[in-house]
């Protein structure tokens, strides 16, 4: 049975409205991402990529499709969702708009096949380009924050874990590692999810100690690996390029190997003997001084550092420190974090 022409025309108008709405959605989402790349990151590469994609989308946004628009008659204009009403961080804003653009491109890919023989193929390719852009941009965001982070808290088991961590975050902490060698995986998973939410709420990076599987399960920003843990290249295969991988080092050979293997940052220590690394001799301030002269990636002096000795560590050349007890056992973690950061921020770069 031949479909009446009027019905065919009506279906065509519906397809046009769908294409028009999703072209608008994709362009709007891309513009939001582009503005952050331009003004937030000052990154011309990401900005130009967003602009190129927007211009390609605009090429398909013809007058014929625009003419089918019926905003007053669109039932979707009144629909909303609580998550759309608020954004907790730049990362949440960017991810929401990447999702918006990718969903719109999937719609354009499918309905575009009914409109133009090339449209489906074009938007399929563009959707994959958006996945790549998302991965690269979020990875860039993470690595920028890593370079800006000077205080690193490594947790120890505590009944007040969440309260202590949030207090430190309020004091300006921007980098947290969840470390618990004894808890069951069910407890680790639950705590890691809550800590990740806290970190993202405060705009901090969240790292998991040792466990690549746990990092993937909770969408952590990366992992920290000891000398006896998984090789960095294997962790990179599992985690991808956008997540952060750190490595503990105790001497110059381990430092050089970690850098060569592609670590994003290293721990340098233990500077002082510490119960966290029972039985391990202190690497001392000499290793800190060596790192200051030779390490090309972010590095954190670690091991027994507290408010009483941090200036000795800074004098040896450290610009970043990692702590455990001095924050986890502090009566007022917010004030201790503020004090440690105030000392680290007093470091003046060489002219």
UniProtKB/TrEMBL annotation:
UniProt KW Amino-acid biosynthesis keyword: no
Pathway: Cofactor biosynthesis; thiamine diphosphate biosynthesis; thiamine phosphate from 4-amino-2-methyl-5-diphosphomethylpyrimidine and 4-methyl-5-(2-phosphoethyl)-thiazole: step 1/1
Keyword Metal-binding: yes
Classification via Pfam families: ThiD2, TMP-TENI
Alphabetized UniProt keyword annotations: Magnesium, Metal-binding, Thiamine biosynthesis, Transferase
PANTHER family according to UniProt: THIAMINE-PHOSPHATE PYROPHOSPHORYLASE, THIAMINE-PHOSPHATE SYNTHASE
Described purpose of this protein according to its UniProt entry: Condenses 4-methyl-5-(beta-hydroxyethyl)thiazole monophosphate (THZ-P) and 2-methyl-4-amino-5-hydroxymethyl pyrimidine pyrophosphate (HMP-PP) to form thiamine monophosphate (TMP).
Protein name: Thiamine-phosphate synthase
Native organism taxonomy: Bacteria, Bacillati, Cyanobacteriota, Cyanophyceae, Nostocales
Gene: thiE
């Amino acid at each position: 049975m031949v479909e009446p022409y009027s019905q065919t025309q009506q279906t065509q108008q519906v397809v046009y409205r769908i294409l028009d709405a999703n072209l608008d959605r994709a362009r709007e989402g891309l513009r939001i991402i582009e503005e952050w790349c331009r003004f937030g990151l000052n990154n011309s590469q990401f900005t130009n990529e967003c602009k190129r994609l927007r211009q390609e989308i605009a090429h398909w946004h013809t007058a014929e499709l625009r003419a089918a628009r019926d905003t007053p008659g669109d039932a979707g204009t009144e629909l909303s969702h609580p998550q759309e009403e608020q954004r907790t961080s730049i990362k949440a804003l960017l991810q929401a708009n990447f999702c918006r653009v990718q969903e719109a491109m999937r719609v354009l890919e499918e309905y575009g096949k009914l409109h133009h023989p090339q449209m489906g193929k074009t938007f399929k390719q563009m959707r994959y380009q958006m996945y790549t852009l998302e991965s690269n941009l979020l990875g860039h965001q993470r690595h920028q924050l890593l370079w800006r982070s000077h205080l690193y808290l490594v947790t120890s088991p505590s009944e007040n874990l969440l309260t202590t961590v949030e207090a430190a975050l309020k004091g300006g902490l921007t980098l947290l590692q969840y470390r618990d060698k004894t808890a069951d995986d069910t407890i680790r998973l639950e705590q890691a999810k809550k800590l990740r939410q806290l970190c993202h709420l405060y705009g901090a990076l969240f790292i998991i100690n040792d466990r690549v599987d746990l990092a993937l399960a909770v969408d952590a920003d990366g992992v920290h690996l000891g000398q006896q843990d998984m090789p960095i290249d294997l962790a990179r295969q599992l985690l991808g390029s956008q997540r952060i991988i750190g490595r503990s080092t105790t001497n110059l050979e381990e430092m050089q190997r970690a850098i060569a293997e592609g670590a994003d940052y290293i721990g340098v220590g233990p500077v002082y003997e510490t119960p966290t690394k029972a039985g391990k001799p202190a690497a001392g301030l000499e290793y800190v001084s060596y790192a200051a002269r030779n390490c090309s990636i972010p590095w954190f002096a670690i091991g027994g550092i507290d408010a009483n000795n941090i200036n000795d560590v800074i004098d040896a050349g450290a610009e970043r420190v990692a702590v455990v007890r001095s924050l986890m056992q502090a009566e007022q973690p917010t004030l201790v974090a503020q004090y440690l950061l105030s000392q680290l921020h007093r470091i003046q770069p060489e002219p």
